[in-house]
Amino acid sequence: MPDITVFSVLRESECAECGTEIFRSGLLRMENGKPLCMACADLDGLLWLPRGDAALTRRAGRYSTLKAVIVRFSRARKRYERQGILVEEDALRRAEEECLADAEARSRARERAALLRADEDEDYAKAFAERIGELYPASPPKERLQIACHTCRRSSGRVGRSAAAKQLEESAVDLAVMAHARHAHSRYDELLVEGVDRLDARAEVAADVDRVLRSWRGTDLPGR
To answer: Any idea of the CA torsion for 93, 114, 164, 143, to the nearest 10 degrees?
Structure first.
């Protein structure tokens, strides 16, 4: 069955049944196109569990026979975003007791997962730096590592997190090295600060970037 949805309102409203005023950030449920307060929606016996603790939310939701999802509209993102859940008091108490009982074990598991991710990221960055050395043998070793660490950072959204980069494909490595050369060995950043359009700034520094790449490769590159 789909979850019951409750809205945290952005502006004041009024219950269609009892006339109770629902203030900003208050909760209402829409039923047949009409807003209802929590009492008239028969949800006033539930407790609000804010988002943020995934384990507690998962357990409380599992143990609560009656529950609802709280959402709030984000004007910035133009979408409804989850704010938490409404659950029965006994379900929340049971979930809290379980979470307290295994808090240490879950903390250790998180630490192990974080260490594993760090090891994976370190190995990936080293492999990426080695691949840069293969393609750009005259590049400074220190800058190879800088490029790799910057490009391969988890959740960065950079080219290093792409599928092509993870396969160490030449095209992805080229993009990462080119981006570094643009920022570190040209006036590109200065031009951006001066208000020059990004594409115009790239065009203006293209020759400087190309010289750096040719130097690092040790051979002439065709025009890019």
So the answer is: 140
Contact yes or no for 29/68 (Cβ under 8 A): yes
Using alpha carbons, select from 39, 23, 28, 24 the residue that is nearest to residue 6. Answer: 28
Q: Find out whether 132 and 89 touch, Cβ atoms under 8 Å.
A: no
Do the Cβ atoms of 35 and 23 come closer than 8 Å? Answer: no
Quick check: pTM over 0.70?
no
Pair 221, 210: CB distance under 8 Å: yes
Q: How far is CA 168 from CA 2, 103, 176, in A?
A: 43, 39, 11
pLDDT for residue 79 is more than 80: yes
Residue 83's nearest CA partner among 74, 96, 93 is 74
Range with lowest mean pLDDT among 153-162, 177-186, 202-211: 153-162
Q: What is the 3-state secondary structure (H, E, C) of the chain?
A: CCCEEEEECCCCEECCCCCCEECCCCEEEEECCEEECCCCCCCCCCEEEECCCHHHHHHHHHHCCCCEEEEEEECCCCEEEEEEEEECHHHHHHHHHHHHHCHHHHHHHHHHHHHHHHHHHHHHHHHHHHHHHHHCCCCCHHHHHHHHHHHCCCCCCCHHHCHHHHCCCHHHHHHHHHHHHHHHCCCHHHHHHCCCCHHHHHHHHHHHHHHHHHHHHCCCCCCC
Please answer whether residues 5 and 71 qualify as being in contact, where contact means their C-beta atoms are separated by less than 8 angstroms: yes
